[in-house]
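Problem 3 from the worked examples.
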Amino acid sequence: MDSTDHTTPTADPVPPRRPVPSTHRADTGTPAARPFPDRPRIPRPAPPPAGPATLRRDAGRVLAANWTGSSTVPSRGLYPHQWSWDSAFVAIGLRHLSPSRARRELTTLFAAQWGDGRVPHIVFNPSVDPAAYFPGPGFWRSSRAGAAVGAPAAAETSGLVQPPVHALAAWLVHESDPAGSARESFLRRLHPRLDAWHRYLLDRRDLRGHGLVSIVHPWESGMDNSPSWDGPLERVEPARRSAFRRADLDHCAVADRPTDLDYGRYVRLAADYRDHGYRDDAPHAFAVEDTGFNALLALSEHALARIAEAVGAPPEPHRARAERLTCSLTEHGWDPAAGLFRGYDVRGGRPVGGYSAAGLLPLALPGLPDEIAGALLATLCGPHFGLGGAVRLVPSYDLRGPSFDPHRYWRGPAWFNVNWLLERGLRRYGAPARADALRSALLSAADASGFAEYVDPYTGLARGSRDFGWTAALALDLLVAAERDAAAGLEPGPAHTGRATAATGNGTQTATRPAREPTPVPVPPARHPGPAPHREP
């Protein structure tokens, strides 16, 4: 990253927060007595959202304040550097305000790509105080520790990765301004880098050899402290608490963040990976085939096929990769009894238990068999996630699970990027009314929470950081889509149909709501009785 393009971030004020009950003790990570009663909770009525012009202005204000000159920080205080999948989601919203800035967001990130193809999950800004974030550049020592696998010498980064949503973001950014994209050769420059990124994952991280990528640290899932990782993490000896200082607690309530025990294990895993030179053939105490990560890789392969066509490269290899990933997910990850996809603990040799929102993310993929898509929709709206019933936003973890916590990071709060992906999935698989309701709830929550990092799924109250980059960006993207629908005269249609009513001067007529039609993907025989492949009507 070019240091001359950065301005020194200033810490944003964090409003005081009341202490909240938690199911994890912050000092030990031991489950505390469960303070949340096991009964249905009535969500608070959502406040009326700000008008579109006000919401657009406020989202733009957040994105402008978080802009460094070459990229967007997730938040000025808590996350003062560039994060990988954050930048992808930010670019998706930023394209509506400034396509050129959206393009720069992605090209800045990929300028720090490693020689082996990996895109690091953090690119450090050298003008930021090294003590502002832990683990910082002095911990990762990427340019030295990762030199043998191609870490850049001119930038300090982490050695881990995050979910690969970048090709999807690049294609959407290109579509927003094809002429500007062509002038900058945006896709032509980015295509080989995106291809190398995907090849790194598929070639270096397929630890079981059947076409699914493994993550080697919980941070690589993007869902850092999900209860899904509790079992695999039990094998990891945590670093001593005295060995690190948590800068995150300077900016957020303790009850909103991972525990010290979690952090000790994160530090141990990252240090071991670093000390093995960030080699993927080194032993990994934690290795999991994460459903969400693989689903997003397949989704981005579909986008990369379109990018390849646009630059005159063959799209078929990318379509084939997407199909193989979808088939492998269906064969190895689909749990018909649970009605969702499950990850696999490679070291433990067993599926990951519980109900994580990661298991719903394949709903964003095209071409799922009808039976699987229908089961995912039922799970999404059933008692474990409660969409449209107990809650208006999808929680990150099972509402009924013993590890659910509505405040603590990825152990239950609702996140805007996950809900944005599921909103697209609802539209893709014929549930426009539910998608409209989710879109409305997301816009209301973004407005009412001050663009919070995440929110309590029951109350919508803000948790974590405020003025969060991807919350503002994705709210802007949803707002533009809502305005486009309104301009087309479309109203919410009945759930599970693609029909909507539109008023005309001659009365009321039936109109077809635009839908993202799935492309059929052949599904191989699964270990469980498998459904018939999906076919377009």
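Problem 4, a separate protein:
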Amino acid sequence: MCPLAGFMKRIAKQTLSVFLTVTLCLLLLVPAFAVLGEGYYTTLPTIYLQGQGSEIYAEKGNKRSERLDEFEVPDGYIGDAAKALIPPLLKGLTLNKWQEWEDEFVARVLPLVEKTALDENGEASNGSGPPNYGIGNQKNAEGKYGMNNYVLAYDWRLDPCLVAEQVKDYIDGIKKKTGAEKVNMIGRSIGASVVLAYLAQYGMEDLETVILYCPSFYGMEAVSRLFAGKVEIDPKGISRFLDFYVNSGELGESNAQLYNLLKDVVAVMARSHQLDLTAKTLEHIYEKVWRDVYPRLLVKMYGSMPSFWSLVGDADYADAKAAIFAGQEETYKGLIEKIDNFHYNVLVPSTQKLKELVEAGNKVHVVLKYGVPMIPTNDMVNAQSDMLTSVWSASPDATCGPIDGTLSQSYIDALADRRYLSPDRQIDASTCLLPDHTWFIKNVGHRDMPDCITALFEAIYEYDGYMTVFDDEAFPQYLFFDEASQTMSPLTEANMVSETEAEWNQSFFQRLIRMFKLLGAFLRDWLQEKFN
């Protein structure tokens, strides 16, 4: 092997390791905690249920106690963990003896996340929980309410059906304080699960307009497949994900040159199948250890939280329970009862429930995101997604082309009504649950909450009637988020190809040439710094 090829493989393998670390962190932080944009107002009070609804403190209601939901990795932790894990990893690979690696892995990961775990009944028996906030009349001089006035501080770990009872009390309190006969509601991610639980229990008697923001009717695949133990590592998916993640700017600007080089190296290696063996090796390691690691690890963290079980789709649910509660079904009987109740009585019938509500004259809307590659650790890696949930699950049932392609020409030619076809020909919304009331925002991930999206919510809430995707030229069915300007505009042929998509459309040789250019620039700068 030539020195350059060896160098490239080392970079690719190191990048893959970094990617897997980032992937784990993203899964640990899903769904994101974020408020709505400031400066937006509605005539009725609007209740906002965030993905992770509030801070979690060691003592519920006491903000002076230890905060438990801040995941901090100590300095040197990753390096120390890698050194400790490599010897038992090699032992597992060579001798097929994995117990030592499993013990070390659990011992390293669990202390980072177990503080937020619930007990075997899926309850916070240790007294931890969110802070307490009062309810006031937040109406301004113009007689309107800020869209961040009523952000409910709920315990995002708990059973969404239990939280729904808290939401009902919260609504009653707001109505009493403000004199409003009804309120609006928006639920994001896990918050959308709470909205579904609320609608199943109480209907829309107290609600004027509901928005389900980034919901997961058929499961949030990044979580659902993980819980079920269905992990696949896709090299091309890793390349697409790395392209988007570097372009998003989340890694910062200080090492931008190196990150751009790394993503091109990985793209070249993936397209030439040089990462296939590495991916298969990772899958082999996973298959050898997951049955033992899962009951010990996940059930002590997110597997103990009914809220995260609300993100497990029906196709994965039985497998997930078998994987996580294997041999411990009696111990976790209380938790299993809670998650079964939500799954079978709320999630599975949720689409039919929404249909019935809309047919009865109620106003329900869905807003979701797309154009972001799925975390490449499951079989949905080629699907249109927001990184964590596919468009198929969030819409639900929109027909989509692959993340790096379009719907087939034969499918498009057969469409009798193309009003619901996206300008980039990647999505047909005519097949989704509420085609006239579902918006798709391209080029923004699940965890991100740009202020500009709140303008769409305001328009929906303030519309005189049941707003459709055809009623406001500023907010058609398909919208595009521009990362650089932090603005949102209608998706058109002029803006429909993002920076990341343009890279995916480049040929192998285009990426290879750019890789060598970036490598030359990197080495030149390194040498100048070294010898100046």
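Solution to problem 4. The chain is about 45% helix and 10% strand. Residues 7-22, 28-32 have pLDDT under 50 and may be disordered.
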